[in-house]
Amino acid sequence: MKLSLKTSESFNEVMKLYLPTVYRIAFTRLKNAADAEDAAQDVFLWYFKADKTFESEEHRKAFLIRCAINRANSYASSAHARHTAKGELLENMTEISCDNASETVLKTETQREVLDAVMKLAPKYRTVIHLFYFEDMTIAQIAEVTDSKESAVKSRLMRAREKLKSTLGGYEFD
Amino acid sequence: MNFKEEYKSAMEKISPDENVSQKIEQAVLNEISGKTAAKKKKPFYVCAAFSGAACAAAAAIILVNVLHVRTPNNLSAETPSASGTSNLTAGFEISEDKAETDIISEEFEPTDFQAANVNGSFKEQDEGVFENDADEPKDSLSSANTAEYELIFTPEGDVLLVGQNETKKYSPEGVVSHYTDNADIAVSSVKCSDSTVAGVAVKENFLYIFEEDLHTAAVYKLKN
Questions:
Q1: What is this model's ipTM?
Q2: In order of start, what are the domains of chain A with their CATH numbers?
Q3: Looking at the DSSP assignment, which residues form a beta bridge with residue B151?
Q4: Which residues of B touch A42 (CB under 8 A)?
Q5: Of the ranges A130-144, B111-125, B172-186, which one carries the lowest mean pLDDT score?
Q6: What pLDDT does residue A9 have?
Q7: How far apart are CA B29 and CA A11, in angstroms?
Q8: How far is A77 from chain B (nearest CA, A)?
Q9: CA B163/CA B166 separation, integer angstroms
Q10: Which residue out of B18, B23, B24, B160 would a mutagenesis test of the A interface target, given it has the greatest number of A Cβ atoms within 10 Å?
């Protein structure tokens, strides 16, 4: 059965179900709560206007994840422009944002350590790590939503793990 | 320790709270219903050449940006018309009243740009013309109204470059943070509510959408 947004699905229900997913992907890319909110808002606006029909919930989720990645990537550029316009370095801004998020949101030092290590990775590595370890997506699925080859995803995942191992040490990576 | 478990636990706590959810939901619903929304989204037009005094404000703003990254001496050496920018060889035309007022306003809407000569040449002004904000460029640019481009971002993240006779679709390739071939930039200045697009260039099969620094660009590849 094909699921159409405006016929059989409630937009609010879709938002409640997938907002955390979209928000986290945007946050992973942007490292900033306010920007992540804006990006998430854009994604759901796109979603509504697109009025696409999905074969399954997996397709719907994949579409939203793809939109979130693309929107966050675009937003990263504009965020960069705003920060540099203020005479601030992006690296410093994001570092501060990340630390604040860690301090206020995370309760344990271990989790903060892990999150900080991930956030210090390059964007392409962060996205792959998040999709693989948090969203439990396969290499093939990640390749599809990131519009990349599976070999490229494998390579990014491997390099991201290597970087995390050197930063964290003592962690097991499945 | 297991990385996956720790990372999942950490990320579970990064989630929009109820207020944020409601705020986003309301903003989206407002936008859908056509009410004043938290964010305005409008496509903007990529046109060809500036004309007359109408280009003064736009060109001044653009070149103020350019001057941040280029010396005046370099300006005279760069001729956008001679570059490989395909059929997207210039910038935006702005109506005179908009040029003097809206372009520096928060309310400036990119749709106010009008069509201009897509294939017209972009001739370099005298060196140093724009060093002083009070100076205005001479009316030596092509102004024939022959074509209009519209740049549309699709939900999938692709970009449509819609012309009168053809539409080209580009897919995202990444971000170039130190683009140095400024001669290829078809300068423009479009303020959007959520982002700043300061220039657009088409080179071979790639579309570059620049930020204000004209060095950072989102890169899109032509889809067949």
A1: 0.82
A2: 1-105 (1.10.1740), 107-169 (1.10.10.10)
A3: B44, B161
A4: 39, 41, 194
A5: B111-125
A6: 52
A7: 9
A8: 7
A9: 5
A10: B24
In this prediction, residue B117 carries a pLDDT of 32
SS3 call for A156: helix
At how many degrees (to 10) do helices A109-119 and A123-133 cross?
Answer: 130
Q: Which two three-digit tokens encode residue B171? A: 């897919």
Tell me the per-residue pLDDT of B87-96, one tens digit each, with 9 for 90 and over: 343 333 333 3
Distance of residue A96 Cα from the nearest chain B Cα, in angstroms:
16
Q: To probe the interface with B, which of A15, A63, A70 has the most B CB atoms within 10 Å? A: A70
Give the A window 41-60 contacts with B, CB below 8 Å. 41-42, 44-50, 52
- Domain boundaries, given as residue ranges, for chain B: 44-222
Half-sphere exposure of B81 (CA within 13 A, CB side): 15
- Other Cβ atoms less than 10 A from the Cβ of B89: the count is 24
In this predicted model, what pLDDT tens digit does every residue of B89-132 receive, in sequence order? 333 333 333 333 333 333 333 333 333 333 333 333 333 333 33
Alpha carbon of A98: minimum distance to chain B alpha carbons (Å): 11
Which residue among A67, A78, A130 sits closest to B156, beta carbon to beta carbon? A67
Contact A44 B6 (CB under 8 A): no
